[in-house]
Design brief:
Strand content: 15-25%
Mean pLDDT: 78
Structural class: alpha+beta
Number of strands: 7
Low-confidence stretches: 5-17
Strand order of the largest sheet: 3-4-5
Largest sheet: 3 strands, antiparallel
Distance between the termini: 59 Å
Order of helices and strands: EEEEHHHEHHEE
Length: 175
Amino acid sequence: MRRTAARAGAAVAYSGADPASAPEAGVELPGPEATPATAAPVPTPAPVQQQQSLRTEFPFQLPRGYVDESGTVHRDGVMRLSTARDELVPLRDVRVQENPAYLSVVLLGRVISRLGTLPMVHDGIVENMFASDLAFLQDFYRQINAEGHTRAAVQCPHCSEPFEVELGGSRLGES
């Protein structure tokens, strides 16, 4: 493989240390197979690595469903990963300061990005959900924000079949 220098007026790439020894335009440069052992090696570019995309939204289905004022049941939803801000802002909420149990309601209102056909999800919707749906969402929040650290591989003592168990965790909003 042979390389040629760029046309006149264009920058010329070379690996020599002395600028005065730069090749003139149109002069053939030796390929890597003809490079003397004393010449400086030409650095090769690092291989391009594929970036893994981070999954930030997780679909869910409520066990019972939220019933809106018109009687429509909303069960399918999407929850996004929580940010530090999502966990800190509710702590300034007066309702949370008066009743710490309200933290999970405010926090879930921030991270649920879709629920059925509702135009917007907020803490007022979460506080009107059935207790079983609230418990489901609290557990789901822990699962997606714990990076899978709440599951453990175990083996049945009777049949030796491997399976995973959910270890649970602390209360919602606590690290």
